[in-house]
# Entry
Amino acid sequence: MTLPERPAAASAPPPAAPRRRPRRTPLTWLRGGGLTNLLFVLPMLFVFFFFSWSPIVQSVVMSLQKTNLIVSEWVGLDNYATVLSDPELGRAVVNTVYFALLALLFGFPLPLFMAVLMSEVKRGKGLYSALAYLPVVIPPVVAVLLWKFFYDASPNGVFNTVLGWVGIAPQPWLSSAVQAMPSLVLEATWAGAGGSIIIYLAALLSVPPELYDAAEVDGAGIWRKVWHVTLPQLRGILFIMLILQVIATAQVFLEPFLFTGGGPAGATKTVLLYIYDKAFRNSLGGDYGEATAVSVLLAVVLAILSWLYFRLTNRWSTT
# Structure
């Protein structure tokens, strides 16, 4: 007995040939509305170039000149060689790094800490948010002058009076080379913490509440919930806030300019204050070429730091 033959399996259809993309030509670009899109974007491109890239190009050109905006002389890289060999710039860099480290040590974790505490409050959260943001609303110059009054070194100064209540002697504050920079950081932290607190409060709303519920079931307290739930969930916004604070502290100018003018004995002279002195402190007209050279160097350093930072954070975020 012979078994019936099985029908032959249907052969698979040949793979379809890849579809060729139509060739782009100027005519197809015009028919697709390319000219209309270009005319629509052109004013924005012009404004962006005029107000963003044009000043950058002009600054690079000015950094290669010796000029007081009246008389200009092409000197090439001499301005860069002059400022890099200036010991005053080295001290300004050290002071700026010191300010940035103090600001990161105290000013970076404080807004997050305050935001976590405020997120746990059941009533009056809006009032606390308004009070936290109030220093940001105050004009910066007014805030600095107000704190300068608080920092009065006499026994009748506001802060020295408070210290006297607990038996601490009056402090020199801004007139001390040791205490001047921490005093500036304290005011800068107070003035800038409000904006960071509001950002962190908004970011905390995106954390799924189920994670906190699961942590409570496991017996976690508030600090363990912050460490194991809040911080990992806010890792992206923390990275962004960190680089923004590094850039802001590297360009600090208002506090040392209004509080101490760079003193005492140059203890609070930062890079931007050094640039200001190069450009404007000379009554006959400063050397804008050297001042611009320092500005270009600062921009390059910050760009390199930002690039390295984002490369590292992208690698950490994928692991």
Remarks:
- The chain has a mean pLDDT of 84.
- Residues 48 and 54 are 9 Å apart (CA to CA).
- The domain at 78-317 is CATH 1.10.3720.10 (MetI-like fold).
